[in-house]
Structure formats: C-alpha cells, structure tokens
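Supplementary Methods, section 5.1.

A reviewer requested that the exact input to the structure prediction be made available. We therefore reproduce it here, unchanged from the version used in the analyses.
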Amino acid sequence: MFTDVEGFTAIAESMPADVLMRQLTDYFNLATRVFARHGGVIDKFMGDGIMVLWGAPTDLPDAEYRACVASLELHAEMTELNRRWQAEGLQPFRTRIGMHTGIVIAGVLGSSDRLSYTALGDVINAASRIEGTNKQLGTRTLMSEATFEGLGGRLATRRIEEQIELRGRQTRMVLYELLEVEHQPR
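The structure derived from this sequence is encoded token-by-token as follows.
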C-alpha cells in the first residue's frame, strides 16, 4: 500500500513549517495506529506519503481484506481529524491510497554504511503507480485486480471500466475503487 496527501505541495506552501510538521505528525500517528490495528507494517514515510506492507516480514492471512478495512478506517478517522483542524483554521488532508498484491523481496537493504528493512519488486512499483492514478481518476482508494480477488467481494468496490495505463509501465491493469463506508454492506 502507498498513501499520499492530495495537494500536499500547495498545502506546504501555504503554512509555516512548524504548523505543517504538527499536522503531519498528527496524520502519521493516526495512520500508524490504524494500520497497526489491521496488521500493516509501515516500511517508510516518504515526505507526506507512507509505504505499508501486509504479510511482511511474516505471512498475514487475509491481508487484502485487512488492508482495505484499514483504508476505510483511515478515511473515516481523517474526517474527524480534518474537522478538528478546520475548527483551528488549518487545511484538511485528503488521503489517496493505492494497493497491489503479489510476491515481493523483503529484507534488509542498503549500503555498507546504512541499512534498512524494506521490500522491493514489481508489486511495490505497481502499488505506487496505482496510488498515483487516483489523481487522474479523481478517486481516493484504488486496488489492483489481484487485491480485489483477495478481498473476495466482502467490501463494496467499483470496477474501473477501462484497463489503466500506469505511468512507467508497459502493461495495463484492471483497477477497482474501494467505495467509502456509506456504500458498504451492513
């Protein structure tokens, strides 16, 4: 999973760095709690983005469902945090999410001077590109067909009717939008 705050560059330009840092810290703390509740492991923070793994470093049954529920909860909890921020005169954050499922290489990687745990492979690159496709489609949460299949129809989704060309990739992908809570079965 990759997350990104929509319009972050414009938000960052419009406020003092200390205020921006406080908002990012609040956002990261909230996201970290949500992801951990559902078995997600944060690989890294990248500016305003987050890379999250489900099923690494240890196998996690039902990873797709857990990741999707975490996505829905993050959006719901951000709604409340945004209300508080707006009451303080601060800009809201709108989070976009991209998910893909597959086999990756996970472990310690880096140089002889600096190592960190991470994952790499085409699945990681595709998940990042899927997240970026939200901007083009005006969506908030997109997943690959592989993630959709792992979800097993337990949450409401919408199939994007055309195969999407992801930036930097030669093959097109079928994507699905994860629909927000008001569209979920009860």
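The chain is about 40% helix and 25% strand. These observations are discussed further in the main text.
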